[in-house]
# Entry
Amino acid sequence: MLSWSLADCAIYEGDEASGTRLFTISHNDMRDRAVFDTEGAEIPTGYKRKLLSMMPRAYVYWEVEGQTMIYATVKKTFGLRPAFGVFLHNPTVAAEAADTIELGENPDLTVDGSAMGHFVILQGDVEKNPVKVAVVRKDNLDLMENFPLHITIGPKMDLLFLCLVIGAVQEIEAQARAQKR
# Structure
């Protein structure tokens, strides 16, 4: 379960916030979110949003030996419903080179949203044989309120990575709504 307060969220195991807290994703600066363990120590991972862009993006990163490396780019895709592509980078890309990242046509993961704010994360060819790796549903019917969210993930999936992707998607959507006003 994700429970958000402004731009921060706590991830709990189980159906309610009374469950075991696994980690927290918290605000670092205007466009950066970092991950903290249950003791409050920062885990060297998170995501950064690219704000000044026609097509908003977020970069999921991990710090390795003092260098920030980008593992994935989350980018809104065109369509009738909210949808995002998650492009995994292998090899990883140094954060300083983020503006040079060339994204292919087909994302490694697709986040497919509904009008009610629920969404699924799919892997593989979305048109032919997609694999559902996570389902995200929200508790309320308020279209402007996104939290709390409940996440069901498939086997052998990285919960932390998927939570960073979900957070990035939520913030990119909020940014798009704010720009329309």
